[in-house]
Amino acid sequence: MTAPAPRPERASRLVLAVLVVLGLALLGAAAWVGSRPASFGWFAYAPLSDTTYVPGGTSSPGTVALLSSAGTLLLGGAAGFAVGRRSRPAADARPE
Question: I need a surface site. Which of 13, 59, 66, 83 has the fewest CB within 10 A?
Fold first, then answer.
């Protein structure tokens, strides 16, 4: 029985780097979005001009949770990928 061909080392390092960079980028985006001041439903009404001002630029807590959970999942996937690449079965360690 022949052993399977080893995966190219360069491709696996590239996959690992992409997972880590995307995970950190998503966690950074979650921290940036979550650090904006929150609006608590305040609005202003000018009765003579019939316009209503509602402040914008805030994000919902769901957006922050989605970004941070996606970033955490990517970093966890990168860690699992790195650990899986290190572990090899004992049969492959012996020369034939």
Answer: 83
Query: For 76, what's the count of Cα atoms within 13 Å in the CB-facing half-sphere?
Result: 6
- Decide: 19 and 72 in contact? Cβ < 8 Å: no
Per-residue pLDDT of the chain (96 residues; tens, 9 = 90+): 576 666 577 888 898 999 999 999 999 999 888 887 665 555 555 566 666 655 566 677 788 899 999 999 999 999 998 888 876 665 555 555
The label of the residue with tokens 């012996």 reads 94
